[in-house]
């Protein structure tokens, strides 16, 4: 917090700095600096912002975002916490009517936060208007004791990020002023009448913002992992590549290059896509301020797509990096286990990936059908019904590969839509038919998302003007990325007829050549991510390559090494050894 103040970084921008990486096992303030700060900035009206933002900036108020309940995370409309307007006192009464309505998971809620943005079902004049955000004080601002009517605690140990004190929260007819409803987009007036927003999903805006932030953070996490594994692979010598010759650096093995280089490429693919979605988010935010919500659905879908793909890719990439470090990748001091546990949760939180991909698929099917009917569709999905342009580019050029992605994606959507129609004819119920096609629908969403990411990678690399040599290395990396993802998805390209078996063999051959070509660039590429050793926090990945010394030094810090003979010997082992059991 002191660093943020020194550098004049506003609270809501803190989460895109590296400051949170200082903590190894989760940051109890991350939801305060990210979601809580963003909810105030985007969901509170100017008067409310004046009231709470300065206090949050000074950390007098430490907040969290309390939406998920034990019973419902994905299905936001199913939340059970109620906020009933009482016109007599001009207050909302917050209540948790069931066990399943208990708020569960919010980061920092257990012990750190003294306030929360609570999502609750809004009732006024006897009618329910769905989930709305409320500013709620949970603890006394001086003593930090929980307030009467508020029951809260921590939910217990998790796979990782255990310093984040994820919490639970219940309300027992807890009263808050009417003016604590965040009223930028919708309002409840003094007489209890409801003023609806210009788009009924504007109150979900903090989730959209966070999904975009997660994409950015996934590229950082993966960058840390590839830095550790690549540097280690340059230090580690093992086995014989040529019998009788000295043991080579493990980075010389083609299989090791295949484990690492595509994930180095992936860091850039995710980063460039994150920048593109961030630009769109800023445009949409500016439009919303002027009352225009036309591009909100496009932003929602793009943020779902990129959050799902980047969390999946970075989690898999980090695990591959851990495995690429052999046994030493399993030791906590390598930094890789905590990178994994703090990244795999991004697959689940802020919208479980399958659910987000189904949102993308719904948009693809709707847009495809609209396009067929000649209705207007938004730019990112025009290609679904636009004529093919496969023959305009030289065969197997980067542009041709992007076109192959585009056509294969359009083809898969077309095929899946036909399947959906057939299923609908059998079931006579759209929802059952949808469920029966949902595996294929997820594949549509994944391929569309991959197409977007590949396209952003290529267009960004081609726009680099600063240095020919940098551009040349990034072009090779981008080429590797395109070919790698084509080889992983061969079936889609064969089915769409965009690539033949011979094309795929040619591309595979080129991929192996690229691995060898990029091998000398591996260490410079990860060095260019420029992580300080303190932030990387890894015995395997430090700048100076003193891997073995650091592993040995770190082992000395183990509490078990404080004494030669442990207490457990006297208490358990010695009696066991003497017991003749
Ligand atoms: C280092 C920086 C890192 C920063 C990150 C900080 C990390 C902090 C640590 C942890 C944070 C974790 C926090 C959380 O997890 S908070 C809880 C998050 N919860 C979720 O994300 C819930 C997921 N569910 C949903 O979002 C939705 O309910 C839904 C699944 C998307 C939609 O459900 P449903 O289909 O029932 O849809 P609705 O009836 O609600 O919607 C119908 C139409 O609305 C469109 N829609 C939905 N959402 C939005 C939106 N946000 N914006 C615009 N439009 C939206 C939807 O597409 C439908 O449109 P259509 O035209 O097809 O009818
Ligand atoms: C580390 C961590 C931190 C979190 N922090 C916060 C926080 O700060 N604030 C907060 O409010 N919440 C937080 N959450 C909660 C998080 O947002 C939810 O866990 C998440 O949205 C998933 O919801 P769920 O747990 O209800 O899963 P479920 O929706 O129950 O998912 C279980 C399974 O059902 C499937 N499924 C569900 N619906 C569908 C569907 N329509 N179609 C197909 N399959 C479906 C899913 O794909 C999944 O496989 C956090 C969670 C974690 C793990």
From TrEMBL:
Similarity annotation: Belongs to the acyl-CoA oxidase family.
Domain Acyl-CoA oxidase C-alpha1: 204-365
Keywords: FAD, Fatty acid metabolism, Flavoprotein, Lipid metabolism, Oxidoreductase, Peroxisome
Pathway(s) per entry: Lipid metabolism; peroxisomal fatty acid beta-oxidation
GO annotation, biological process: fatty acid beta-oxidation using acyl-CoA oxidase; lipid homeostasis
Species annotation: Scylla paramamosain
Domain Acyl-coenzyme A oxidase N-terminal residue range list: 2-62
UniProt-recorded name of the protein: Acyl-coenzyme A oxidase
Pfam families: ACOX (PF01756), ACOX_C_alpha1 (PF22924), Acyl-CoA_ox_N (PF14749)
Lineage of the species this protein comes from: Eukaryota, Metazoa, Ecdysozoa, Arthropoda, Crustacea
GO cellular component, one term: peroxisome
Active site: 350 (proton acceptor)
Subcellular location: Peroxisome
Residue span(s) of domain Acyl-CoA oxidase C-terminal: 399-578
Signal peptide start and end residues: none
Binding site for FAD: 68, 107
GO molecular function, one term: fatty acid binding
Cofactor: FAD
